[in-house]
Design goal:
By secondary structure, this protein is mainly alpha-helical. 56% of the residues lie in helices and 7% in strands. It has a 3-stranded antiparallel beta sheet with strand order 1-2-3, with helices on one face. The radius of gyration is 30 Å and the shape is elongated. The protein starts with 12 loop residues before the first helix and ends in a 24-residue tail after the last helix. It comes from Candidatus Uhrbacteria bacterium RIFCSPLOWO2_02_FULL_49_11. This is DUF5671 domain-containing protein.
Amino acid sequence: MDTITSSSPKATPRDVFLQLLSVGTLYASAVCLIALLFQYVNYYFPDPLQYYESIFQVLRRTIATVIVVFPVYVATAWYFQKEAAKDPARRDIKIRKWLVYLTLFVSAVTVIIDLVTLVHRYLGGELTPRFGLKVLAVLLVAAGLFWYYLWDLKRPVSVLTVKMKNILRATVGVIGIIIIGGFFLVGSPQGQRLIRFDAQRINDLQMIQNEVIYFWQQKDSLPQALEELNNDISGFRTPLDPETSEPYEYGIKGPLVFELCASFKTAGDEESTRRGIKTTPIYSTAQQNWNWEHGIGRVCFTRTIDPEIYGNKEGASLRPAPLPAPLPAQNIPD
């Protein structure tokens, strides 16, 4: 194996920039690739006892990072390979050797920790398909990096063989397939925008519902129209549809019964019910919003106020009590 000697060519500022950029984007790509594989496991093997961030939010973030960062790594690696083909001595610059050996060290430690964790969980009887797949994902990525850079250190020439070129192309292709698969899970950007519009509609309806109940608590009757909920003191204004800017529909069905309606562009809670696979824990916010499930199109939600629960007993209210007025300033002697 090559060693760092005093005869190594001196690194230029451009070399330092390229090597740091290459290693930085490599590490970021590896971490995001592992995170992406983890989300595949979370999607197809959900754990109802684990609290975690929305899978689709993590997928969007990791896909966006890989799409930007990984091509930068490929471009810098290709450029350095092109330069090394002209001047093979460039492969022996000290900063490159240090960073390559650092990558080998990190990869080796990751593989060791991964295997130790696997054996530990196995001996404790805690080995599940979900955990095993995540261990396998880390092992494949870390071992792949270790093998590639170990081979890169040992190869005597700067020209890649046909076999190695095919392996690298296949690796890039697999990463591309993983990224494309993520797009199929999260949906198109247009679809995500529609989901966000519907989520805002549900949020608006929840606020309106609370204000209607508060209005009933204070006046012992339901408002005849949503405009009656507007309050200059509290600053509340009845929200409008975020996409069309049209007011939401409201109707009185009885002394204690009212109805709120909105038009939705997606069906149900896309984050937790898409394709019938639960992707959030059973005690998540999405599961608590079961009474706001909806289909595509105009959907109405009927609510009945229970006086025993929402009755304004001893000044009880959905809103916090207003803060007392500040006392006038007083001159306090020293």
